[in-house]
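Handout for the seminar on molecular recognition.
Each group receives one record of this type.
Step one: identify the two inputs.
Step two: read the structure output and locate the region that could contact iron/sulfur cluster.
Step three: write two sentences on what you found, then compare them with the reference statements printed after the record.
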Amino acid sequence: MKSLVRENDEILVNSAPKRLHIITFGCQMNEYDSQRMAQMLMDSYRLTPFPEEADLIIVNTCSIREKAEHKLYSLLGRLKGLKRTNPSLKIGVAGCVAQQLGKDLFERAPQVDFVMGPQGLYDLKRIVRCLEKGEERLLKTELNEDFDIPYIDVPLPRRGDVRAFVTIMQGCDNFCTYCIVPFVRGREISRPVDDILREIGSLVDQGVKDVTLLGQNVNSYGKKPSEGVDCPGLLKEIDRAFPGIRLRFTTSHPKDLSDRLIECFGRLGTLCEHLHLPVQSGSDRILKRMNRRYSRAEYLQKVEKLRSACPDMTITTDLIVGFPGETEEDFSQTMSLLEKVRFDQAFAFKFSERPGTAAARFPEKVAEDVKSRRLTKLLELQNQIGLEQYRRFEGRVCQVLVESSSREKLTARTRENHVVNLEGGSNLVGRLINVYIERACHHSLVGRILH
Ligand code: SF4
């Protein structure tokens, strides 16, 4: 759970009289959406990190993690107290849980004034105007297949960040059996190329040097014939327009990782040598039950192609253990896939069902203690592999982008997406510098600046 602003974020202060507090759960896409909401209201609200001084609080929810509903209600319970001290306070709920619960939220949490889903948030300005006129319980949760993601032409004052995220598409057509996203974010919708280029341009003007393109399934960007430019085409356009940036994208579905897209690695100077490619399981039987629509062999083949296009490529992944029906044999297939691919990092979770998904109705549930044991075993193996992978950088000279500083300690990032800790002055933030990698730790590197 994050507030969109931190205490002492001076640059977010504008002269608007009212105050807005946004609480964000979940992924980078939700953080991006929270920023869009702040942008939309910037002419009349300024952001505050303190909920108790806000005139408007928006909770931007995520349904991917476990107990999302429960967490939301408990937060709303705490916010209800603020309404007693400030009766004019308005509270809104946005995002995936809002989409899922819809008007039921008004029944369970009468302190909520408006509910809007991932498409509805673009109507925020109108919703707030209606609230100010005295309208109550406003609901905006339609999902429209022909929805056009609007361009918000108001730059958000930034905190001097050198990294930024740009959503290029939203929604998902894949219906993996464990996932709620297609139900709450709707079908895939790609943003127009010109809007994306314009947004990156304004970020670059503000000093951003590392841009990550976001979407639930980024590599199916522009797949409708009417959209004209596909994901490799978009990467090429961005590379041409902004040759000085570092470019990344996430999340990719293995089945949509085309040869043309793989060829972009190593060919486009801006495209960094890192890909997050969620595999979820190493067993064909489980992949089928998950409706992932690729096989273990196909996944391994894509990894091989990526590494021949770009030998030093960092590959990271997501894994689920204890999916319904997962046997010891299935799990050992996942373990052997880890050994074969040698991911730099893997984000592994125990399966937990999401109401409304197909997998929630699957029989052959795996017992909690079995899931826990498998997860521990998997993380032990991955920690060892991850450290070995990080060690390949020891003794090398890498170019890093310095992202932040605190008391003469710098945090920087390699093109391969490894965090490097260094000593140095804050004047280096935003600069590309060469460093000597002294040693690898779990999940980071320690470097020394080369003068
Ligand atoms: S690809 Fe699968 S896991 Fe990813 S958002 Fe779509 S349905 Fe969910």
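Reference statements: The pocket of iron/sulfur cluster is lined by residues 172, 174-176, 179, 181-182, 216-217, 253 (CB under 6 Å). The domain at 2-140 is CATH 3.40.50.12160 (Rossmann fold).
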